[in-house]
Amino acid sequence: MFAGADLRGADLGEPDDATLRAFAGATINPVQAAAILAARGISVL
Q1: In the prediction, which pLDDT does 2 show?
Q2: Which residues on neighbouring strands pair with residue 27, listed in sequence order?
Q3: How many of the other CB atoms lie within 10 Å of CB of 6?
Q4: DSSP class of residue 6?
């Protein structure tokens, strides 16, 4: 759904796993990626 979209700076909220699948192929920034992973218990160093 968002393939090729540039979502850097967009408010992604707290997407669930189904919503994350829609982001496949989109570009997000490191802060967004860290927030998504942290919500799933994964630490980004």
Answers
A1: 87
A2: 6
A3: 11
A4: B
Q: What is the pTM of this model?
A: 0.79
pLDDT per residue of the chain (45 residues) written in tens, 0 to 9 = 888 999 999 999 888 888 889 989 999 999 999 999 999 999 988
| Domain spans in the chain, listed from the N-terminal domain onward | 1-45
Q: How far is Cα 13 from Cα 1, in angstroms, rounded to an integer?
A: 17
- Tokens at residue 1, please? 């759904």
State how far the alpha carbon of 31 is from the alpha carbons of 35, 36, 38, 44, in Å.
6, 9, 10, 10
Name beta bridge partners: 6: 27
